[in-house]
Specification:
Number of domains of chain B: 2
CATH architecture of the largest domain in chain B: Orthogonal Bundle
Organism (chain A): Paenibacillus mendelii
CATH architecture of the largest domain in chain A: Orthogonal Bundle
Shape of chain B: globular
Number of strands of chain A: 0
CATH superfamily of the largest domain in chain B: MetI-like
Number of domains of chain A: 2
Largest sheet of chain A: none
Strand order of the largest sheet of chain B: 1-2
Pfam family, one (chain A): BPD_transp_1
Main location (chain A): membrane
Number of helices of chain A: 14
Keywords (chain A): Cell membrane, Membrane, Transmembrane, Transmembrane helix, Transport
Largest interface: A-B, 90 and 97 residues
Helix content of chain B: over 70%
Oligomer: heterodimer
Strand content of chain B: under 5%
Radius of gyration of chain A: 25 Å
Membrane topology (chain A): Multi-pass membrane protein
Distance between the termini of chain B: 26 Å
CATH topology of the largest domain in chain A: MetI-like fold
Chain lengths: 282, 320
């Protein structure tokens, strides 16, 4: 009896230590953002005097400066339209193969499904040189090139949507066929609305992924008026190393994070569920 | 007849029944499938297959840096590449660091598993933690690396500021600018920012385990470790092994984190294979060498990934 009592006490202490570690880890993730928010509202001079203090006067001007003179506003709008177009096209190009693989029997359907798996296992950085040359030859060093990159279709999103389509009864389609609807009609007006949950989850991931994407826009966008917010921000970080106007940089960073933060606040339940349903199992 | 055969037979039968009912749709069906698959397949053919083949072809060619003329040079690129791997400090460091990222990534998965189990057992604030931990996976790598490097900033950073505050000034340093700590700081970053994604996937897998398994374990009075190794690990193994494989292959393509945090420096102390290949293309326009390295590391990566896959399949898994 005594030993189990001790055991229980010991377990309680261990559990307490673990809880403290969990809390500490959460703080290390949150605090730097809060710290940046506080410092984005100070004047640069104030920031250099004391990095811990609260702002004496809230310098909202930093946000205006970031938006206009640092051109974050321009980058923001570039990101918005590219994210909107990219999310739609990337989800559609995943939904189309997912649907025919899940609902139609044809030769080679397993092979197409297999391609998606193989894609995961081969690191893509190896083909960077030829990719760079190909994009030059196709003159795709522009937003169109970036958007085409998002329409891969055969990949993770396809696997997610595949499992959603699998779960839907074919009888809905049968009925529509009897009424004389064609395959495209059935796909667009019956099957797609039925997998709304899956589409929302995948679209949210695509949206966040494209908004945040850095690599493709960095390489393919050549002139400043095309930059997305991630690329613009990275150049701003470089520039601030010399001008040391840090508080404006913090403001710019918050402008970039805010949309994602809002989407996450609203969608977190769906997002986390979408991720867990992703059929990542063996 | 096995049940499997009956299944195929039945679907075959249903198929013909359907064909009978809608004869006119048969050719339209083929057209529909073709249209739906056309773009994804073209994209895969160009950006998947074609680029892989091109990489192989390019690896046997050289580019004149001034005129841009291509010439076939046989195995010259490969010989140069293998020489550089044991004599050129840049590449020895890059390879060494890249290999170290495999255990670091796997450590992140292991920590994500421990956290997922803790949160599953209804630690207070579990929902809040899950949301917070996932956040780094959702924001741009530009922002998260910037936040991290600002925390480590030698003069205005939180970490050195805290060390000052608690009187440990002797540990203050330029974390990312010091050859001794640059690489370790990047490892810490990858774990700090990388736990959330795996954590969410593992949480989902844990929630799919029928609750009875844990109940039985509790009745038997087994402890944490027994529960971990006899209940959770076998049931989660399919998910866990997938994550391990993905993080192994992920180690070979790590370079954005490094580029944004230290740009491989100071000197070559924190560079990786991915970053050096990127530089060959962007800075030197040396597509031939970049492709040769690309092929070499794709092959090495593939072999290592298959070894890890083979190893993970040695363990027993349970069906549920």
């Amino acid at each position: 009896m005594n030993t189990t009592g001790q055991q229980r006490k010991f377990n309680k202490i261990i559990l307490l230590i673990l809880e403290i570690i969990l809390l500490f880890y959460a703080i290390t993730l949150i605090y730097p953002f809060v710290w940046m928010l506080i410092n984005s509202l100070k004047s640069n001079k104030e920031f250099f005097q004391d990095i811990w203090s609260l702002p004496e006067q809230w310098a909202w001007k930093n946000y205006a400066d970031a938006w206009e003179s640092a051109r974050i506003g321009r980058f923001f709008f570039n990101s918005i339209w590219m994210t909107a177009v990219g999310t739609f096209t990337s989800v559609m190009s995943a939904a189309m193969p997912a649907y025919v693989l899940a609902k139609y029997k044809f030769k080679g359907s397993n092979a197409v499904y297999g391609l998606a798996i193989v894609g995961f296992l081969i690191p893509s950085i190896g083909t960077f040189g030829p990719w760079y040359m190909l994009m030059q030859q196709l003159s795709l060093f522009n937003p169109a090139g970036v958007l085409i990159g998002y329409t891969g279709g055969i990949g993770f999103y396809m696997l997610v949507l595949y499992s959603f389509f699998k779960g839907i009864s074919w009888e809905y389609a049968e009925a529509a066929f009897m009424d004389g609807a064609g395959h495209f009609r059935v796909f667009f007006s019956i099957m797609l609305p039925l997998v709304r949950g899956g589409l929302v989850a995948v679209a949210t991931f695509a949206l966040i992924g494209i908004w945040n994407d850095y690599f493709q826009p960095l390489i393919l966008l050549q002139s400043e008026h095309q930059y997305t917010i991630a690329v613009g921000l990275s150049y701003l970080v470089e520039a601030q190393k010399y001008s040391a106007d840090y508080t404006v940089l913090f403001a710019a960073m918050w402008i970039a994070v805010l949309p994602i933060l809002l989407v996450y606040m609203v969608m977190q339940e769906k997002l986390i569920n979408g991720f867990t349903m992703g059929g990542i199992k063996g | 007849m096995k049940s499997h055969d009956i299944g195929t037979f039945r679907s075959f039968f249903e198929y013909w029944e359907r064909v009978d009912a809608m004869k006119g749709l048969l050719t339209k069906k083929g057209l529909f499938i073709a249209v739906m698959l056309a773009w994804p397949l073209i994209h895969y053919a160009v950006f998947g297959l074609y680029l892989q083949v091109q990489t192989l072809l390019y690896s046997f060619q050289s580019w004149n840096p001034l005129t841009g003329r291509q010439t076939w040079t046989g195995f010259y690129n490969y010989i140069t590449a293998f020489r550089s791997m044991n004599s050129d400090g840049v590449w020895t460091s890059a390879i060494f660091n890249t290999v170290l990222f495999i255990p670091v990534n796997i450590l992140a998965v292991a920590l994500a598993l421990v956290i997922a189990i803790l949160l599953y057992h209804k630690v207070p604030l579990a929902r809040f933690y899950r949301i917070v931990y996932f956040f780094p996976a959702l924001i741009s790598i530009v922002v998260i690396t910037m936040v991290f490097s600002f925390a480590l900033n030698p003069t205005q950073g939180i970490v050195n500021g805290l060390l000052d505050a608690v009187g440990l000034e002797q540990f203050k340093r330029a974390w990312l600018g010091d050859p001794q700590t640059a690489l370790i700081s990047i490892f810490v970053f990858c774990i700090w920012a990388g736990i959330g994604g795996s954590n969410v996937i593992l949480t989902g897998a844990l929630q799919r385990i029928p609750h009875d398994y844990f109940e039985v374990g509790k009745l038997e009075g087994i402890g944490f470790w027994k529960e971990l190794f006899y209940i959770i690990m076998p049931l989660l193994w399919p998910t866990l092994s997938t994550l391990i494989i993905v993080s192994t292959s992920g180690a070979f393509s790590i370079f954005l984190q490094v580029m944004l945090l230290t740009n491989g420096g100071p000197f070559t102390s924190s560079t990786t294979v991915g970053l050096e290949m990127y530089r060959l293309v962007i800075e030197k326009n040396d597509y031939g060498m970049a492709s040769a390295y690309g092929i070499i590391f794709t092959v090495i990566g593939f072999v290592i990934v298959w070894c890890v896959k083979w190893l993970t399949e040695r363990f027993d898994t349970a069906e549920y």
